[in-house]
Amino acid sequence: MARFCTLCERTYPTQHGYIKHNTLYHRHPKPRPPPTVIQYHPALNASPCDANGTFLANPNAKPPADDIFEDFGPFEDRPSFEYAELAFEKMAASKGDIEHYLRVLHGKAILAGQDPNEKPFFESPKHLLAAIDDIQCGDAGWSSFSIRYDGPLAPDAPAWKRQRYVVHTRNTLRVAENMCASTDFKHAWHTRPYEQYDVNGSRVFSDVMSASWAWKEADKIAEDPATHGAMLTPLCFAADKTTVSVATGHQEFHPLYMMAGNVTNEMRRAHRDASVPIAFLAIAKAEREWDDTAEFRLFKKQLYHTALRHILEPLRPGMTTPHIMRCPDGHYRRAIFSIGPIIADYPEQVFLSGIVQGWCPKCQAPPEELDKAGAPRFREHTHQLWETFNRKTLYDVFGIVNDVRPFTDYFPRADIHELLAPDLLHQLIKGTFKDHLVSWVEDYIRLTAPSARAAKRILDDIDRRIAAAPAFPGLRRFPQGRNFKQWTGNDSKALMKVLLPALVGYVPDQMIECIGAFLDFAYLARRSSLDIPALDAMDAALARFCELREVFIETGVRPDGFSLPRQHALLHYTYMIKQFGSPNGVCTSISESKHITAVKRPWRASNRNNPLIQILRTNTRLSKLTALRVELGRRGVLRSNIVTYAMRKVGLAPPEDRQDVLERRHSAAQDVADIDGPEVESQVRLPARHAYLSRISVLARRLRVPSLNELLRRFLHEQLYPDFDEPDDHVPLAACPWISPSTSIKVYNSATAIFFAP
Questions:
Q1: CA gyration radius, the chain
Q2: What's the pLDDT score for residue 25?
């Protein structure tokens, strides 16, 4: 027996009169996204080649088949590998804890009758760490070099001139090869620059490779015919100093991270190995006498750029001559490297671009006129200024430090002023919102309140309004309002959702409208993809914000105007989005999150005696474990859970046929692809814990819904049989699933509804 579904326009087998589909009750799948037009770069088309760089005769040929064999490297078997990964990476257990757990397992094995001389997994923590060190894949070891002041040294020269500054670095070429070869990025790696257009013909900007910079970079590279058919591989960098000893603040590190621009923004934000620490820069310090002198500030900048130039030197040959690399899909391709977007907060941007503090690194707007954009800065223009004007004119008129040559000048096609990416975290969320608007509102209340005590009462009432926000999915509650000292980016983003209504009645309407215009701009900027209408809306929202913020001048909160570098950066956002795609893929929040696993946790696990060396060793081991897991996943030996795997190895469970698995997955994909319809897929997620447990009869009295039991039964009938011909209220109650009124059910006070919105 079969029935015809009017939505799918297909006939399905039925059971007991109701449509069934593959033994599961029939559901309409998520519709396909609206059709888009994608144009790929014609010259740098990432044609596959062999390991010697010779292009394949058939560009559509399949990559070499994966080798399916069980080799866990230095580990005896899969349980040993998974134990090492669990203890070292996921739990970050100390050596004492690892040894104690190994003894517990050893004691259990002895009680089970095993030979006491047979140790489980590893003999000791030292044995475990040695096994991790022996992993061959993902190996990109650390080396070091030193830099020192090369000027004249007087007998009484300060200590910072005599000191050698050690920089620890990895081979950046080796790191790029490991990243490109990782099958973890198989479905998240763009091999070609592309332009995407929606159904209305509007350009869509999302990942780095979808934006204008990648296309123009490919055009420059393609001027050399020898590069045709190569794969553009932009390498993004993030430099961000971090402090690990919160109490004293004396222990700080300056890591440098590298990311492949081919990786999608979503994967880059997923905290996988799409972002890899490649260096720890030296931090120069001096006595108070020298700390604020121009000579020491200049030395710090020169030290910074010299180190960066040396770190990236292994990549230079591959920026003009193709370098053969294996890609995540298994093919070899001829890669051309480029220095891509550089992620940094404003103080770091000042160091990177060689400008004077207070100036904009993207344009020539002077510090007192940052309320509007100036003429753009670019490499050739800066060089011409160096040759034309003296040091004082460059410093005072153009905001350029003459004695600092940016590291990008030593690499092909790299312009530091162009490559600086937008920073949602420090420019938008922490900068304009928290440090500016929220602080200005507080200043206004203190200025206009009749007394200091009255101002505190108003601020307390605003806190109470914020704390009164109801529990709702996606909204964070602030039980004490926003009166806390240590703000994070997530705190600021959560406050953005509830602050505006809490201010109504205490500040002028124009101030409310100003903050509202900024929030419009902020939420548009945080989208994962933006089309031209969205960018136009951002420009309109920013224009409203700039017009309405005059209220802070009129009320005396900002008598000096708005020459603020972080707020000025918003004027460049729509242009930078067109250049580099969505800002959430090139944001300092990525490097801030990476600090936790690359710096802070390894530091806490160290003995504080020369901790940097221990941090480097930990990062190497983490990279090796991740690379081995990816490699084992590629071989297909990690598909089932560890218990099922063990049962199959000893014959207690039937072996799994890899070909059958692939065929089932392909069949399932075909079933989904064949069904087309206008329905939307929705999903409801409940909190991890229910509010309380109640019987249906008791809950009916509490909710004053006597027919609750009947409604639940009809609801289940509707869910089980969605294509039943008669309306649910006409179905006899006896035909509905039986639920006893004494049945206990879990009650949730909230839920999250997720749905696909065309």
A1: 31
A2: 42
**Tokens found for residue 321:** 């001559």
Among the listed residues 690, 674, 639, the one whose alpha carbon sits nearest the alpha carbon of residue 660: 639
pLDDT in tens, 6-49: 545 556 555 444 444 443 344 555 556 667 899 999 999 999 99
Residues 436 and 503 in one domain: yes
- Paired with 531 in beta bridges are 204
pLDDT digits (tens, 9 = 90+) for 242-268: 988 765 557 899 999 999 999 999 888
198: in domain: yes
Could you give the C-alpha distances from 549 to 101, 217, 430, 445, 569, in angstroms and in order?
Answer: 61, 38, 18, 16, 16
Residue 42 lies in a domain: yes
Q: What is the largest CA-CA distance in the chain?
A: 102
> CA-CA distance, 497 to 475, in Å (whole number)?
7
Residue 685: inside a domain: no
- Cβ-based neighbour number of residue 365 at 10 Å: 21
Please enumerate in sequence order all residues whose Cβ is within 8 A of that of 400, keeping only pairs 6 or more positions apart, or say none. 354, 355, 356, 382, 385, 386, 394
Q: Do the beta carbons of residue 687 and residue 750 sit within 8 Å?
A: yes
Q: Bridge-partner residues for 40, per DSSP?
A: 194
Beta bridge partners of 682: 755
Domain end position, chosen among 583, 609, 640 = 583
Predicted local distance difference test score (pLDDT) of residue 260: 95
The pLDDT of residue 420 is: 96
Looking at the fold, whether 19 and 39 belong to one and the same domain comes out as no
**For 45-82, what is each residue's pLDDT tens digit?**
999 999 999 999 998 888 877 666 678 889 988 999 99
What b-and-e string marks burial along 102-132, b requiring 16 or more CB atoms within 10 Å of the CB? beeebeeeeeeeeeeeeebbbeebeebbebb
**Residue 687 CB coordination number (10 Å):** 13
Residues in the chain: 758
Running DSSP on this structure, what letter comes out for residue 421? P
Burial class (CB in 10 A: 0-12, 13-18, 19+), 280: buried
Question: What's the number of domains the chain is made of?
Answer: 4
Same domain, 321 and 213: yes
Whether residue 276 is found in the same domain as residue 301: yes
The DSSP letter of residue 260 is: E
Query: How much is the pLDDT for 677?
Result: 37
DSSP class of residue 725? S
pLDDT at res. 556: 94
- Which residues, given as ranges, of the chain have pLDDT below 70? 1-34, 66-69, 246-249, 271-272, 482-486, 656-683, 722-730, 754-758
pLDDT, residue 15, reads 46
User: What pLDDT, on the 0 to 100 scale, is given for residue 16?
Assistant: 42
What range defines the domain where residue 195 resides?
33-64+136-344
Looking at 344, 364, 379, the residue that finishes a domain is: 344
Q: Could you tell me if 325 and 228 lie in one domain?
A: yes
Residue 106: inside a domain, yes or no? no
